[in-house]
Amino acid sequence: MLIREQTDHDADTVRGLRKVAFGDTAEGNPLRPGRRGLVAELDGRPAGALTIHEFHQYHGGAPVPMGGIGGVAVDPYARGRGVATGLLDRVLADLREHGQPLSALYATVPALYRSRGWERAGVFERLDLTLDRVATGPRLAARPAVADDLPGIHACYNDVAGTVNGLLDRSAPAIDLAEVLDLDVVSVVPGHDGEVRGYLTAERDREGLRVLDLIGRDVETQLGLLGGLRSWSGLLDQLTLRVVDPAVTGLLTNQGIRYTTHTSQWLLRVVDLPAAVAARGWPAARWLKPAAVDLEVHDEHAPWHAGRQRLVVEDGAVRVEPGGSGAVRLRARALGPWFSGMQDSHALRRAGLLDGDAALLDRLTGAPGVPRLADFF
C-alpha cells in the first residue's frame, strides 16, 4: 500500500470517496489554505483519503497547534485491507513533522481511532430551548454586522474561547472569518472605540432557528442577546442553541428539570507529549511547589514519545524530559482525556489506561469544566 500527500489532482477522486462513504455532495477542491491531506493507494488506484485541518485549540488558556482529522473515507472494495489504519499510522508522523502535537476528530467508528490512541476528551453540544425558557434582558442597540466588524467579532469570541478548554481559536487560514457574513443572522452589539461587546450568529431553515454563537463580554450583553431571541415568538416555539459559552446555556437560560441536548463526542490524541505540554497553558502550576511525576508512556504508534518520561513542575512552568522511574504507567489513550481535563486519574485507572499515583497530573488539570468544541470538521 502506498500512502502519499494529497494533491490538487486528487480533488475529484477524494470527492468521490466521500460521496460514497458519507453521502457528501460538497463541490470544490478539498484542499485549501489551512488544510492538507493524505491518499492511500491499493493496486495502483486511490483507495482511501483523509484531510488534516491546521487548527489551534485552547488548553489552559493557550492555543495549542492541533491537527483536526476529517473525511476519513475508504473505497468499499478496499475495506478490511488496512487502509484506514495505514492512513492513521502515517498521519501521526505527518502531524509531528508539521508541529502539531495534538489531534482531534469526530469518530463515527470509535474502535478504529481508539486502536491508534485517540480517546474521548470533550463534547460538541446543542441545546433545544423553548422560547418561554429564554431569559429576558435589557434592550440592546444591536445591528447587522459588516466586514469591518470581523476583527471585533473574532476578538470577542476569543475572550470566551480562551477560557474554555477545547475551543478553537478560529484563526486563519484554516478558518475564513469572512464566511461569517454569509450566515442568515449576524448581529453585533457595538461598544466603545469600535469594540464589539457581543454578537449573535444564526441560520434559519425549515427545521427552525439554529443559533450558532451567542457571545457577550458581560452579563447585560448576554442577557440582551438572549432576550432578543424572543422576537421569534409566533414564528417558532423553540430554537436550537449551540453551546459555545457554557455560562450562557448553563447559568443564564431557564431550562427546567428536563430538556433536550444533542451531544457529539470528539476524541483527542496527544501526538508528541513533550511538545504538547510545552505549548499548553498550566494556570494551576503557578500555585504548586516544585514537583515531578515519573511516567512510562506505552504508545507503539508514536514511538518518539514512548517510554520513560519525567513531567516536571517548576517556577510556574511544566515540562516533560526523558528519564525517571516510570512509576506511573499511561497508555496512549489516557493522554488525550487527561490533557483536556475531561477525565482524572481515578477514571483513567478504572478504565485500565493508567497505573500508579498520578495525583500531580490531577492537580495540574484541576477540574476546568467540560472541554468542548463548537466547530465541526
What would your notes on this structure say?
The protein has helices spanning 11-22, 83-97, 110-114, 150-161, 219-228, 246-252, 273-279, 332-340, 345-350, 359-365, and strands at 2-5, 35-42, 45-59, 62-74, 102-105, 119-130, 143-144, 185-190, 196-205, 208-216, 238-242, 260-270, 291-298, 307-314, 317-322, 328-331, 354-355. The longest helix is centred in the N-terminal third of the chain and has 15 residues, at 83-97. Helices cover 24% and strands 34% of the residues. A twelve-stranded mixed beta sheet has the order 1-2-3-4-5-12-6-11-10-9-8-7. Strands 15-14-13-16-17 form a five-stranded mixed beta sheet. It has three domains: 2-100, Gcn5-related N-acetyltransferase (GNAT) (Aminopeptidase), CATH 3.40.630.30; 135-253, Aminopeptidase; 267-365, SCP2 sterol-binding domain (Nonspecific Lipid-transfer Protein, Chain A). By secondary structure, it is α+β, with helices and mostly antiparallel strands.
